[in-house]
Recover the amino acids of this structure.
């Protein structure tokens, strides 16, 4: 377990009917919306050098769990109602600290994992591997970004790679100037944004990989950038939210201090922003 992070690094998942959480001791638990426990189980302690950090996903009636340890790598689907394991797919390579991402290409769902060395896609209903591309090395913590046509994989001291998914999946473009160590990238069909542990933010043409603009901020980024209402929200480690236009030129909209350090990616829902600080949980709204 990483002493700075603790046992509860992974983000919980909800579909509005249940809330599920997983912890670094291997405990997996599900509650209804009244806080009543539906089921719980231990899936084994996922021991690795930095501790466990993969967040959960819900797809239809399944809870999707990425398990990375020094002895086993897998992705599993658990029944939301009972907690029964419906499928498990073993993965190859080395343990990573990324989280699975749901994508839709040509209207079909895919579950994508930023792994080491392979970025891989699975059918979320069955766990069947759909495609894989050998891509990254080192300590992989960022999750992939996706848009309607591509997936974007990155880790520090390696590279940023745009992957065309599907049969014969391949790398379309790549670069290694701006590579986050923790923060995950975010993409639209026009732009790809990355924020790094050095304080740099870069905007790329998502289709071709051209660097459109870069800007250096004064603090590191662990939280991932979020796009909402054509703006990019960038929360640095000191708790300052930098808001820029999601455009091909750098345009700063606002900067606001939370007043507390934070490493967690904010969540956006119903015109509200939820931020987990070092000591407090915040809900921010214009009202």
């Amino acid at each position: 377990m990483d002493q700075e992070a603790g046992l509860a690094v992974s983000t919980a998942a909800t579909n509005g009917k249940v809330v599920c959480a997983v912890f670094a001791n291997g405990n997996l638990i599900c509650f209804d919306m009244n806080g009543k426990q539906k089921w719980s189980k231990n899936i084994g302690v996922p021991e690795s050098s930095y501790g466990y950090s993969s967040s959960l996903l819900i797809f239809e009636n399944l809870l999707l769990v990425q398990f990375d340890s020094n002895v086993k790598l897998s992705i599993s689907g658990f029944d939301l109602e009972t907690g029964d394991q419906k499928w498990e797919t073993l993965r190859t390579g080395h343990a990573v600290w990324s989280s699975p991402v749901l994508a839709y290409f040509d209207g079909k769902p895919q579950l994508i994992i930023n792994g080491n060395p392979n970025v891989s896609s699975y059918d979320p209903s069955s766990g069947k591997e759909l495609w894989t591309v050998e891509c990254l090395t080192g300590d992989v913590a960022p999750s992939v970004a996706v848009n309607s046509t591509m997936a974007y994989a990155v880790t520090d001291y390696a590279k940023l790679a745009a992957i065309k998914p599907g049969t014969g999946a391949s790398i379309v473009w790549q670069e290694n100037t701006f590579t986050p160590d923790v923060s995950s990238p975010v993409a639209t069909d026009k732009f790809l944004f990355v924020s790094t542990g050095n304080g740099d933010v870069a905007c790329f043409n998502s289709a071709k990989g051209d660097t459109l603009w870069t800007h250096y901020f004064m603090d590191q980024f662990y939280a991932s950038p979020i796009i909402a209402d054509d703006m990019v929200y960038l929360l640095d480690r000191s708790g300052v939210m930098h808001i820029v236009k999601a455009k091909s030129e750098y345009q700063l909209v606002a900067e606001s201090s939370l007043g507390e350090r934070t490493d967690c990616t904010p969540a956006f829902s119903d015109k509200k922003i939820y931020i987990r600080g070092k000591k407090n949980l915040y809900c921010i709204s214009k009202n």
